[in-house]
Amino acid sequence: MHLRNYKYSEFPGMPQAWEVEKFSLDEVNLLVGQNASGKSRVLNTIVALSMFLGRAQPMTWRSGHWELTLSDETNVMIITLDVEDGKVVGERLTLNGNDKLLREGVGGGSLWYEKQQEMVEFAIPETTVAMIARRDSLQHPYLEPLFAWAERIRFYHFSTDLGRQTLHLVSPDTKPSNFDADGEVKAVVDPNAVVEQYSSGYQKFSDPFDHAILADLASIGYDCEDVAAVHAEGMPFIGGNLPIMLQVKERDLAVPTTQFNMSTGMFRALAIIIHLNYSLMSGIRSTILIDDIGEGLDFARSKSLINLIIDKCRDSKVQIIMTSNDRFVMNEVSLEYWHVLSRSGGTVSIFDRNNSQREFESFKYLGLSNFDFFTSGAFRGPVIH
């Protein structure tokens, strides 16, 4: 399933109150706004929810109210989750208009049981999210797509090193393996585990995985003829394990370039390309969040990387949500993918072609840049000449 509508708020009526008004999302999305407008914070709230649902993490949020819609080709799921003082005080899940879970107040509620074909009452600890606590693929199979969505969210902070200083450790006594007990390639959750992600991808897809990575690198200006995970020579064993690193062979250089010798921008691009191709080649629905896309890259490569991501995700099973306040990035990404964040106090309003179609459609006839659309405030209403 993919995220179609989203709304979030916390600490209502208090000085620290903060709210993101409801907005709609498509397959490709770019959140734009000034510094401190809430771009990163929106992504953080989505990730937090995925951690509670997909990885059964304990409730650490003091206050939060989530409202979201997920859908695929056949189903529409609407979820609400209310947390106050670290306690779950409300949950509701409807599937195609039918209530499947209802919870009001702390503790108990009712949940649809498939075998009995009825809603059955339950009582659970007040700090527990019922949707994950009652996971049962036989009695509650309708919850599985929700868990799959949450488990398949990946969040990358492009302004960080994205794992450039992180190695993959393998036992020297066995062939390096990234397979789980069932013989499946393990999912890599840690965004910094790019070496492990590459190793998993190569074990799963073999040479086509390398070919996709090299083609994407070439499309953004890095002409490489080989990519590989190799022993980090000269580095000691760590906890008895062999350290593995990434390297690429640039066509105009005599020797490979290791991840430690790559420029920060080059490694960030390589990391995103590896993670993205793994998701695309896996052929399963997933959601990728990238904060500050293009940060640290020169203009040409930043533009090329963003266009590459959009082209690869546009008609795929991967939903992409990126953020930026870089004028060059904003000028290169079509307004059809934009969601403009405008914050007033603790309230974030979001303008896009779904809720401001006239403003977005009319601006393209003025002959100005996308960045002008942002700085002029034209997304709020007609531009006055």
Automatic annotation (TrEMBL):
From which residue to which does any coiled coil extend?
none
Q: Domain ATPase AAA-type core, which positions?
A: 250-324
Query: Nucleotide-binding: present as a keyword of the record?
Result: yes
Give a yes or no for keyword Ribosomal protein in this entry: no
The Gene Ontology terms for molecular function here are: ATP binding; ATP hydrolysis activity
The name this protein carries in UniProt is ATP-binding protein
Q: What is the lineage of its organism?
A: Bacteria, Pseudomonadati, Pseudomonadota, Alphaproteobacteria, Sphingomonadales
Q: One Pfam annotation, family name?
A: AAA_21
Alphabetical keyword list: ATP-binding, Nucleotide-binding
